[in-house]
Amino acid sequence: MSKGFFMLSHQSKETDCKFVFKAAYENRYTWDSNFPGYEGRCSWEYGKKEIQGTFTLGSDLKATVKKIDDNEIHKAISSQLWEVAIHRVGRSFEQTHGKNTFSFGDTNEIGLEIKVGGKNEGDSYRVKNDVVTMVNRHIHGNLIVIVTKDVIHTGNGYLSKSYSSQYIDPISKKKLKEKSFYNDEFIPLFKGGPWVLASRSIHQESVEGQILNKEVFSFSELKSLDS
Questions:
Q1: Strands 158-168 and 49-57
Q2: Rounded distance, CA 118 to CA 102, Å?
Q3: CA distance 133 to 163
Q4: Residue 77, exposed/middle/buried by CB under 10 A (0-12, 13-18, 19+)?
Q5: CA angle (48, 54, 59) in 5-degree steps
Q6: To the nearest 10°, the Cα dihedral for 143, 60, 200, 24?
Q7: Are 85 and 79 within 8 A, CB to CB?
Q8: pLDDT at 216 exceeding the cut of 70
Q9: Rg (the chain; Cα; Å)
Q10: 221 CB contacts (<8 Å, ≥6 apart)?
Q11: What is the C-alpha to C-alpha distance for residues 182 and 201, in angstroms, rounded to an integer?
Q12: How much is the pLDDT for 6?
């Protein structure tokens, strides 16, 4: 086999891999650039304890929470709003992955593995039915592994509904935190409008599978800021 044929074959596989990953990346749901921002009521629940307040998420994606005096809860609600909003920002595939290369790995029940080289070498993803079902990324010196089990199809891209998240030491592979399990509910802000978070529950599980430390964030009476 000639060296030229090998290089062509290698480039072809990389192109095919990039095509598969790009299709899933571009199938994620994001907000339009004219996102108006919105406001409503918010609450945090932990067992029988519940704290309520109000919030505003501006078109600049900055969250403001009011009527909640507990600093930790105030920060937690703001953090959830920001985290959801930052993932709705539309960035082109080239903006995010233009300096990366891609190659196929194995396939399992989660999906087809996409190995990343280049700028973000060492990261990897899994893709199934044009959905990114696993994220394996190095962030601030830690490895975060996110596995998506269920999604919401909006008709204009998908949103993760049920998923887990875990931080791991990239060298020792030791778990830095307990695995967290998420369940999100999204609704359109108005007919034909942007989909926004209505509720998010987060919990850990015992070895026996018992739900631990469950907290629920709820967002209601939602109204667009330009209405």
A1: unpaired
A2: 9
A3: 9
A4: buried
A5: 135
A6: -60
A7: no
A8: yes
A9: 20
A10: 40, 41
A11: 6
A12: 44
State the Cα–Cα distance between residues 52 and 67, nearest whole angstrom. 7
Convert the pLDDT of each residue in 78-134 to its tens digit.
999 999 999 999 999 999 999 999 999 999 999 999 999 999 999 999 999 999 999
**Average confidence score pLDDT of the chain:** 93
Place of tokens 């937690």: 76
Task: Give the pLDDT band of residue 11 (cuts 50, 70, 90).
Answer: low
The rounded distance, in Å, linking the Cα atoms of 201 and 197 is 11
**226 alpha carbon, distance to own chain's centre:** 27
Q: What is the model's pLDDT at position 101?
A: 95
Mean of pLDDT values over 158-183: 94
To the nearest whole percent, how much of the chain has pLDDT over 70? 94
pLDDT at 82: 96
CA atoms of 83 and 42, how far apart (whole Å): 15
Whole-model pTM: value is: 0.90
> Can you tell me the distance from the alpha carbon of 204 to that of 210, in angstroms, rounded to the nearest whole number?
8
Q: What is the DSSP letter of 174?
A: -
**Interstrand relation of 142-153 and 49-57 (parallel, antiparallel or unpaired):** unpaired
Measured between alpha carbons, how far is 105 from 83 in angstroms, rounded to an integer? 29
Quote the pLDDT of residue 5: 42
Which distant-in-sequence residues (6+ apart) come within 8 Å of 125 by Cβ?
21, 24, 113, 114, 116, 132, 134, 135, 136
Q: Do the bridges between strand 112-118 and strand 124-128 make them parallel or antiparallel, or are there none, so unpaired?
A: antiparallel
